[in-house]
Amino acid sequence: MNPEAIKALMTLLDDPEQEIFGPVAKKILAQGEEVIPFLEQTWDSSLNPLVQDRIEKLIADIQQKTTEEGLNNWSNALNPRLFDGAYWTSRLAYPELDANHTQQLLEKIKKDVWLELNQNLTALEKVKVLNYVLFEVHGFTNHSTNVFTLPSSFVHQVLETRKGNPYSLAVIYAGIAQMLELPIYGVNLPRNFLLAYKDPVYSLISDAPSKSKVLFYINPYNKGAVLSYKEIDYYLEQQNMEKKEEYYLPCTNKQTITRLIEHIIASYQKIGNSEKLNGMLRLINILNSNSID
């Protein structure tokens, strides 16, 4: 729609009749985020509380719709990049998030790791490089006082503050690793979240024993501590949980982002933010169904 047509729609935002405003709002929503500057300009020039309320609702609806469409497209991709899923998750709470700035921060860390890597290193030595760069050079650490603190759940904020929870730190750790083509993925462990360094040979064999598909496990919340399957055995025993095969296997990036969003939902529930909670629940539904309304 051309600018003049959009401006014409703006003049109808003060119509008190829902029969008139309803179709107008539908047309505005259909324009996507390109219409937001026009809405903001109209809000600034209007003294009508009805118009301002309608504009605020329209902007929020457009941003929610854009985020849902973005996450839906991401979840349907053949090999969805971990950080892109984290971006759409953050964007729900921070609709004006600067993706380019976040990408620059990631590229800086990636470069620092890449400079320390070489093809002669073993898998364990590569993880030691990752640990050194992330936790010593860049100073990432766990938010030990409260894992439900919301800023520690959004990856773009963790990149700024260097403090994260088990899920956001896992996304950053695995995301950087995958950018460098290191086979590190999440492990969908209940009430916790670890990473697995996939064995490049056995991980491709469908009937291989689950434990042979992983060289070792990594705990980003404890500065990248390396673990064996025995530690997972012990953890499950302590939690009185059944030792299911899925608790030992690498999960998909989609499952990792699902766990991140579930943790954010729990955080919103604790503070009683129903609006953001409902938005995150819609994102979970998208990941579970791969479709949007």
UniProtKB/TrEMBL annotation:
It comes from Williamwhitmania taraxaci. Pfam families: Transglut_core2. Belongs to the UPF0162 family. This is Regulator of sirC expression, contains transglutaminase-like and TPR domains. Residues 102-261 form the Protein SirB1 N-terminal domain.
